[in-house]
């Protein structure tokens, strides 16, 4: 086969690489954050991937005890929220606070969502909702200080354009946002509030126009989009949805939202490769390759890009027990990194400086980068070979030329791979008999199978730089790490 010729020059002037996927990561439900295993897995993800905020539903739900009625008295309790936020701050993270769902005592109806019965109705009294928001925000400011809480973005609700999450009208949501925004700003104008937190980029123009008319603050624009949204047919299987999704749909939708944001920060606070919470693709190298391509395609467009979710400890329908069940998580129930987790580790090594690397190929994409602190020591190239289901894809040969920074030469080149044969713990699980409840020794085996293994590769000195040959398997990712040394 004819090799794809790729070149990048680390003596050239780089451009910024923003890595907005590190800003925030999702987690299903607030009470899960009180679990020891959830907390241990977040520590691991923060350490390895650099996440700064975490977002979850239901901080106002009855199971959090935030507001309940007892003996005809409203009882406010912020103990559980404090335990979660104390933990986040202790590990160097922060919350992105989604104010949801409706405490039953404030609700206008009994409609619920999910196994944990989040109430999705508007408040029967918007002033009481505003008082709850004011009290909880004031409590957090008193406890953590305004300088800290001012760094926590606040969202009003979750996906109010969907009947599954909001029984009210669009105007009812706008009223809820108004009550929320005024309550937060009454505590301190520095508290940041955004919306409309819709699915599929919905309501953005209507929301901003209404807030402008009402004189309401919108400190950031927040919405959601999944590549499976592109067809809009919720009863279509995810393979068909992805097969029909335009290749650049995630960037296209982000550019539309960027235009609507009119200079405000743009936060996508949910995305994944599919919106199906039980899809085997989530556990595969396909997910790793597609996720890497998507996040890099929006790097210059969005300010936050939150993967839904960091862990398979997730109970919207029920809490599963099978280690590999196609869950949303970057790690499985036992904290074993999936291929997509390892792909994000590769992208993190691109750092904050990006070097030109042009690729004109239907399935292969690549990026070159380095952390500023590693300018004279190390360089990274990440390559992906990816196609949507039912689209053609083959193993591709690549010839990569890397030019060094001034006064440097290559000392060592290593490559790590994610494909069917590398960093594939699901396959290892099947090879040991697919146990539903693996023993500690079996979990350790899965961790080992998930590891990125950097192996030295041969390279040639060519035109003042180096060249190396790579073969990219279908639905795969590779990380080339170059270590430099001084020429004299």
Question: Any overview of this molecule?
Answer:
This protein has 488 residues and is an alpha/beta fold. Helix 6 links the parallel strand 11 (192-198) and strand 12 (220-224). The two termini are 39 Å apart. Helices cover 28% and strands 25% of the residues. The protein has twelve helices and 23 strands. The protein has helices spanning 36-49, 79-90, 126-144, 146-149, 170-187, 204-214, 238-244, 249-261, 285-297, 339-348, 425-431, 440-450, and strands spanning 4-9, 15-16, 24-29, 53-57, 67-70, 73-76, 94-99, 112-113, 118-119, 153-156, 192-198, 220-224, 266-271, 304-307, 353-355, 364-370, 378-385, 396-403, 408-418, 455-456, 460-462, 465-472, 476-486. Strands 3-4-7-10-11-12-13-14 form an eight-stranded parallel sheet. It has a seven-stranded antiparallel sheet with strand order 2-15-16-17-23-19-20, covered by helices on one side. Helix 3 packs parallel to helix 5 (170-187).
Strand content: 25-35%
The largest sheet, given as strand count, sense and whether it forms a barrel, is: 8 strands, parallel
Low-confidence stretches: none
Number of E strands = 23
What is the averaged pLDDT score? 96
Instruction: State the end-to-end CA separation.
Output: 39 Å
Shape: globular
Q: Return the structural class.
A: alpha/beta
